[in-house]
Amino acid sequence: MSCFFLLQGFKVPKSISSFVIPLGTTINMDGTAIMQGVAAVFIAQLYGIDLSVAEQLTATLAFIGTAAVPSAGIVIGIILGVGRCWI
């Protein structure tokens, strides 16, 4: 739904629609975060690296914040991978 449709069709105030629509768009990107977290765990298992539950949770939480940023998942994945190699 666009802000224009909400403003004209449902008569929602502009201050509310301009806050709620971007927030809802970001919140609904959870599938991207889950996919990237699962991919990180899969790649770690592929290379024989055992990740603890805390490391798996950290990877998934890191990807939640990057869902709305284009190509940020790749950067976070590299950071998590390099950090693991230095341990």
Q: Your description of this structure?
A:
This protein is mainly α. The protein has one domain (3-85). The chain has helices spanning 3-9, 14-27, 30-46, 53-64, 72-85. It is elongated, with a radius of gyration of 18 Å. The mean pLDDT is 73.
Can you describe this structure in just a few lines?
The protein is mainly α and 87 residues long.
Keywords summarizing the entry:
mainly alpha; Na-dicarboxylate_symporter; 87 residues; membrane; single chain; 5 helices
> Into which percent range does the helicity of residues fall?
over 70%
- The rounded distance between the terminal residues' Cα atoms is 46 Å
**Separate helix tally:** 5
What global shape is seen?
A: elongated
Strand percentage: under 5%
Beta strands, count: 0
Instruction: Quote the average pLDDT.
Output: 73
**Which regions have little confidence, pLDDT < 50, spanning 5+ residues?**
none
Radius of gyration using CA atoms only: 18 Å
Order of helices and strands: HHHHH
Chart the SSEs and their pairings.
Blueprint: H1 3-9, H2 14-27, H3 30-46, H4 53-64, H5 72-85
Helix pairs in contact: 3-4
